[in-house]
Amino acid sequence: MMSDISDIDLTPIREAMAGFEISPRVEPNEAIDLDRVFLPEGHRNVLDVKRQLVVGNRGMGKSFWTHALTNPAVRERLALAYSFPRLANTDVIIGFNGSIRISGVTATIEEIQAARKAGEDPELIWRVVILRATRSLRPANAVSSFIDTLDQLKASPGSYAEELTAADDAMANSGSSALIVFDALDRFSHEWGQIRELTKGLLLTIVGLQSFRSIRAKVFMRVDQFADTELFRFPDSSKIRNDRVDLAWNPQELYGLLVFELMRQQSAASVLRVLASRLDAHSALPTGGHLNAVPREQEALVTAIAGEYMGKNRKRGRVYTWVPLHLGDAANNCSPRTFLTAWKTAAEHPPSPQRQAVDHLGINEGVRRASSARLTELREDYPWIDLVLEPLRRQFVPIPKADLFHLWRSRRVTEVILEKTSGSGWLAPIGVFIEKDSPDALLQTMTSIAVMEERANGKINVPDIFRVEAEILRKGGVAVPRRN
């Protein structure tokens, strides 16, 4: 039985939740301060310097971790929280992050594109990047420009191995390491063919780093790009492909993040500590950004904040399980930004409940708002997504695959996508790039980015998080709001 908490004023929690500042994305070269860093237990392998490939959908944290790793204070916290003592003595350099701004030795889009346009081999290009990153760690060492380093390697191909071997030996003797991080690979070009060549060259190059003891690279890659099997058609590709880490958030981690963000506000933190004490739910409060929550205690805290049910009784579902379920994509993942958006909206929803910080009415509205926000996010990476979902407007899902393909063909969806991506700066769906006018290839891309799922009975479903904003119907699902 839950302890009596009726005398606790939850207004500070509601106000802190309503005041969440949810940034649309982490920009290239953005500084990540220690107080922003929450440490999900499931991200331990993401931050293991030995794991060289991390795959994640939009908004799951690829760019966040890329830039957070460059902060020495963050690395020290990670080393302690995840028992990676080596990480505290690791220098992190960004090899590429999609920036056009010159920042240290990080390669810019223009440098990469110019070298490729000049016919330079992709592996040579990335050797230049890695060599410059390694040279930057030498005390008082002036690193030569990208083009000068490129010319040096062309004139003396063996200098790459020689310099890296010497640097590796020096680091091993001093107990230090270097990690070179790559993000935003889709910004290499506006055309998948060039992106594929450069990405494959990068993967080939970093596999070669496995022979060194103290020099490693970490690549953050989009889920749809990872689905391109051509990237891994080279010897030893299994060493990186099979050892990849999938970047995701489970419900317990998402609720941990919610509480972490609330505790960044002193007034809300004070109330949460009182609640946790009264409910004997101390484990639900992150410590030093790290969470080791007992699920029962975490659920008790969430129930105190938002109520137990999504209505008057259990028929509508329990809040604790209902929210992540209805915010999840086809892979049962929910982005942290989406999750926080739903709760922020719930806290803003009038009228304010008397005994809770938020109620089921606000949460329902939060899911609808989060659906809109999530599609807006995905449009940046996948600008063709509305063309794919529009034919399903006011249709019921799950839908037979044949019916879906008929809707797509009747609207010439793949043809229109190819027309719009030609010279427009759009990247076509990777499946359509490979197989052109193929509804099946388009569906494969939609499943790879977890916007659609193909069920065992052959029917295609669209999860609530995308279905609601796209005005796709489903019996028993979250209601689709009527447009004015």
Summarize the structure in words.
The strands form 2 sheets. A 5-stranded parallel beta sheet has the order 2-3-4-1-5, with helices on both faces. The mean pLDDT is 92. β3, α9 and β4 form a beta-alpha-beta unit. The protein is 48% helix and 7% strand. The chain is of the alpha/beta class and 484 residues long. The chain has 3 domains: 140 residues, no CATH class; 206 residues, Rossmann fold; 86 residues, no CATH class.
Total count of strands: 8
> Cα distance, first to last residue?
45 Å
CATH class of the largest domain: Alpha Beta
Annotation field: number of helices:
23
CATH architecture of the largest domain: 3-Layer(aba) Sandwich
Give a quick summary of the entry.
The chain contains 23 helices and eight strands. It has 484 residues and is of the alpha/beta class. Helix 6 runs parallel beside helix 8 and helix 16 runs antiparallel to helix 17.
Q: How do the strands and helices of this protein lay out in sequence?
A:
Elements: H1 11-18, E1 53-56, H2 62-68, H3 72-81, H4 85-88, E2 90-96, H5 109-117, H6 122-135, H7 146-155, H8 159-174, E3 177-182, H9 192-208, E4 215-222, H10 223-226, H11 238-241, E5 245-246, H12 251-263, H13 266-279, H14 295-306, H15 319-327, H16 336-348, H17 360-381, H18 385-389, E6 399-400, H19 401-410, H20 413-421, H21 430-435, H22 439-448, E7 453-454, E8 459-461, H23 464-467
Parallel strand pairs: 1-4, 1-5, 2-3, 3-4
Antiparallel strand pairs: 6-8, 7-8
